[in-house]
Structures are given as C-alpha cells and as structure tokens.
C-alpha cells in the first residue's frame, strides 16, 4: 500500500502502532473496526456516527496523523488501514455529506432476505460472490441478542421459534439471551478466530442472523459458501 508514500511516509506505521497496541488491550476491537469498515462502505462517511464502537481508536490515529501530516490522511483511509492491521486498499477520500437517514436506508438489515441483500450489494457495485465472501467477516465478533431475538422468541408473532434454526443451538441461545443487551458470538465456538468456520455453522443450521442463513437460500450463493467451507479457504 503506497498511497501515502510521498505525502505522509509514516502514515501506515502510525496506524499500525496505535491499532496493535489498542488490540493488545482489547481483543474484541478487530471485529468492531472491521464492522465500521463495512458500514463505511455502505453509508457515506460512517465516521461522524459517534455511537459506533471502535471510533475512539480512529480518533486517536487521526489526531496523531494530523500532527504528523495535516489534512492529508482521510478518516476513510485510516479505517481501511486500521481494519487491515487489526485483523481492506487505500485511496478513499472522506465524503463531504453524511446523513443519519442514509445510515438506516442503506445498511443491510439482519432480517433481510437474499433478494434484498443481493440488491443492496448490487447498488454498491458488488455481486453475489462479494456478498458471500464478505459475509465471512461474521466469523469474528458478536451480535446483541436484541438483533436476533425474534428468531428465538416470536418468529411469526405466536411466541414461536424459527424452525430453521438447529434446536440444540436455539436452546443455547435462549439461555444466553436472558437480556436483549447480552451478546453472543456470531460464529459459535470460533468467534475470535478468522477462519472458514462461519460456513461450517451455516450448513449446520446455526447461522445467527437471518441475513447469514439466507445465503443458503440462493443456489449460486450456497455453492460459493459450500466451496469456501469444503476447501477451508479462510485459514485461521
Ligand atoms: C450481509 C449483510 C450484513 C448484515 C445484515 C450485517 C449485520 C450485522 C449485525 C446486525 C451485527 C451485530 C451488531 C450488534 O449486535 O452489535 C453484525 C456484526 C458484525 N458484522 Fe455484519 N452484517 C453484514 C455484513 C457484514 C460485512 C460485509 C462485514 C465486514 C466485511 C461485517 C462485519 C461484522 C463484524 C466484524 C461484526 C461483529 C462486530 C462486533 O463484534 O462488535 N458484516 N453485522
């Protein structure tokens, strides 16, 4: 990555040093930064959304880079570099417009079906292979119970459970989700290592979010998922 070789030669080292030291103190951070990076691609300039976890790291890096090379390194690129060092190519400039309404409109929902996800990714210039391969990011990190509670407790409005979810896993999730604020690993038993295990759990009917499970509802997407699992494409 050479985008700042002339304009700010120490940029990548600064990002790397801060990211690594913060990750050493907080192993959950790479997942937060990776999710920020994804949201930044879908929503014009995620940075001003102060409610997102991990942004304090971007703030710290931005402050040091402004001291080193003022007005040179965009927040969008800091995010890309931090996501790479925490666990994605530079060349992105910050958008001048950032609208809260866009955040809701453009972001894929965890309850989305395949066609909706496919369309949203297509609107961002990404195809079915991109959708499947990027979804592997859910091999790390957590989701709050409130995000998928409907699947456990009230799937069709009759206090029922999503029958497509593995029954043993459903019982485990119900026990873990005594409060909607609790979190559970997106990739059970492997949520701290970046590997192909996410696809293993999908085929065991243990995908946590409807947006994960729905990848198997489309023949082409399911085929990609099957290949990624079989050949263990993402090695730990
Ligand atoms: C396909 C559509 C996607 C949907 C609907 C979706 C939705 C979600 C939701 C609802 C959560 C849980 C948030 C929470 O409860 O705090 C989550 C977590 C996460 N997502 Fe996605 N996501 C999608 C794709 C992606 C992509 C493409 C990436 C990165 C390339 C990504 C990276 C992550 C990460 C790393 C986490 C864990 C965050 C943490 O541990 O705090 N997601 N996602």
How does this structure look, described?
The protein is globular and about 60 Å long. The protein is built from twelve helices and two strands; from the N terminus they run H-H-H-H-H-H-H-E-H-H-E-H-H-H. It has two domains: 11-85, Peroxidase, domain 1; 108-230, Peroxidase, domain 2 (Orthogonal Bundle), CATH 1.10.420.10. Mean pLDDT is 87; it is low at 88-92 and 95-103. Helices cover 51% and strands 3% of the residues. By secondary structure, the chain is mainly alpha-helical. The site of protoporphyrin IX containing FE has 23 residues, from helix 2, helix 7 and strand 1. Residues 31-32, 34-35, 38, 108-110, 112, 117, 134-135, 137-138, 140-144, 147, 186, 209, 211 line the site of protoporphyrin IX containing FE. The record marks 35 as: Transition state stabilizer. One of its GO terms (biological process) is response to oxidative stress. Disulfide bonds join 8-69, 145-177.
Properties at a glance:
12 helices, globular, mainly alpha, 2 domains, two-stranded antiparallel sheet, Peroxidase, domain 1, single chain, binds protoporphyrin IX containing FE, 236 residues, Peroxidase, domain 2
